[in-house]
Amino acid sequence: MKYKTKVILYVGIAMLAFIGGAYFIYQQRTHFNENVTINGINVGGLNAKEAQEKLAAAKVEKKVYLNKQLIYTAEPTESEFSSKDLAKFEAILKKQATTLPNDKKINYTLTPAKVDGKKVASLKANVEAKLNEADQSRKAPVDAYAILEGDKVKVVKEQTGNKYDVSAILKEFSQKEGNKDIYLTAKYLKPVKENSAIVKSQVHNPV
User: Fold this and answer.
1) Are residues 144 and 199 in contact, defined by beta-carbon separation less than 8 angstroms?
2) Which of 40, 174, 186, 192 could bond 143 through an S-S bridge, CB–CB 3.0 to 4.6 Å?
3) Is 33 in a helix, a strand, or coil?
4) pLDDT by residue (tens digit) across 58-67?
5) DSSP element (H, E) containing 173
6) Contact at 8 Å (CB) between 143 and 109?
7) How far apart are CA 167 and CA 175, in angstroms?
8) How far apart are CA 33 and CA 180, in angstroms?
9) Can you say whether residue 67 is alpha, beta or left, with left for phi > 0 and alpha for psi between -120 and 50 degrees?
10) How many C-beta neighbours within 10 Å does residue 193 have?
11) What 3-state class would DSSP assign to 182?
């Protein structure tokens, strides 16, 4: 093979490699990785606009779990995403971008620009009702306290319970409400402990 022919061949191979590499990088920078989900919906392989359109077209049946146990399923509703939310999808696309393909599972939570407040309030109210219903058969904690018996102060130790701290659970719910599947962790009411400032104050000022 003549020298000139070799040079042309090598240049051609180099150009093809460069074009292929540039296209690969372009694809990585403009498309979501394989196992990326937004609000629980897979957007792997899609660009930002395609992901926005997929979520906009999706009917969402929200399910709420407490310690991985299903406690409430909402009626399917239309998604509230629109073209106004495209910038949010572009921001997540940029955030998850990697130089090489990545199959790490990761979920992002997005809230539409326009949210039906009544729908959110209704879902939260139903979850709260389920928690309160479950609480009816649960034991409330009992605070520790100090009492005066004769000339001595006695501290009665606290008793733990298993009643839910509904406010704390609903706070977590508010942070995850955008997800299709909402996983919550049970939190429990805590009693005032015998070494607390409240009980120490009672020891110094017994009733």
Assistant:
1) yes
2) 192
3) coil
4) 888 889 999 9
5) helix 166-176
6) no
7) 13
8) 20
9) left
10) 14
11) strand
Quick check: 8 pLDDT over 80? no
CA dihedral angle for residue 149, residue 158, residue 132, residue 73, rounded to 10 degrees: 180
Left, alpha or beta for 140 (phi > 0: left; psi -120 to 50: alpha)? Answer: beta
Half-sphere exposure of 170 (CA within 13 A, CB side): 17
Please name the residues in contact with 95: beta carbons below 8 A apart, sequence gap of 6 or more. Answer: 108
The residue behind tokens 């659970």 is 169
Element (H, E) at 88: helix 86-96
Rounded Cα–Cα distance for residues 118 and 133 (Å): 22
Pairwise CA distance, residues 25 & 16, whole Å: 14
- 116: number of Cβ within 10 Å: 12
Paired strand residues for 108:
38
Tokens of 181: 């599947």
Q: What is the pLDDT of residue 99?
A: 79
Distance (Å, whole) CA 96 – CA 35? 11
pTM to 2 decimal places:
0.63
